[in-house]
Amino acid sequence: MRVCFRSSVQPELMDEYKRRHAAVWPEMLAALKDAGWNNYSLFLAPDGQLIGYLECEDYAAAQARMALTDVNARWQADMATLFANSDLPPDQGFELVEEVFNLEDQLAAAGNVTNAAAPVHTDTTIGHQKEQS
Questions:
Q1: Entry's InterPro entries (predicted)?
Q2: Cβ count within 10 A of residue 2
Q3: Would you give the DSSP letter of residue 46?
């Protein structure tokens, strides 16, 4: 499954957030991978809006496996002061974002991946498109 979430980093602490994520503890990296967090990325907007993306078999189970690790408790405590809502540990304050479109899923559902991926050439002399062979 694909999971997207958002949260908010305090804008005045974004540089510190980036610094910490430039060198995440190796033990934390291993724990995330072992818990099933795959293809995990974080994106930070100029206003502090944080968007996370990951792929896993079961998000609730992956989160629960992380919650059992000592390194996660230490990481969340270390990161908590950087977030706008510090009432909860950062990983418990994620707001899940609904996926409404995925290109590969729709191409597979259409059943015509090869034709959909064919290059399109615009003939500007007559103003219409035709598929290249």
A1: Dimeric_a/b-barrel (IPR011008), Rham/fucose_mutarotase (IPR008000)
A2: 12
A3: T
